[in-house]
Design a protein that fits this description.
Length: about 150
Amino acid sequence: MGDVLPFKSKSNQRIEQPTPWSCMPAVAAMITGEEVSDVFIQVGHEGKPVGKDGRLGFTICEIAGYLASRSYLIGKSFIPRTTTAKWNNPSKFALSIIFPSTDPAMLIVKSSNGTHAVFWTGSVVLDPHPERPTSRDLDDYEILQWWPIVSVA
């Protein structure tokens, strides 16, 4: 088995989600440096009904499978105890013990439509939503889940 290594995204470029429900594939594409269409091919669809409401989307298992096929692994998710604390105050300490905040991660954040996926590069957030700024701070989001990403050599 290979070593688990810290990584920098292959592109570190923001990729816009092509549909309102494809934020997770766009984040996965940012991590691997591939196109969103490559994620669609790997998972076998461009959005399917997920959840109780039947809205289109993708599961974390599908995205994890795509990333694993490209030698990236998603770690155990961390759910912040409080979602109202700012990241620059002492409550950040609990997060930094579990996951260094400079390591890349896929974040699930609160949005007006429920949830949304963004990519934390280790220094800025790259948001795939086409109407959002190209890079943002962690404090701009209410983080619901923190999924660390590692490269497997």
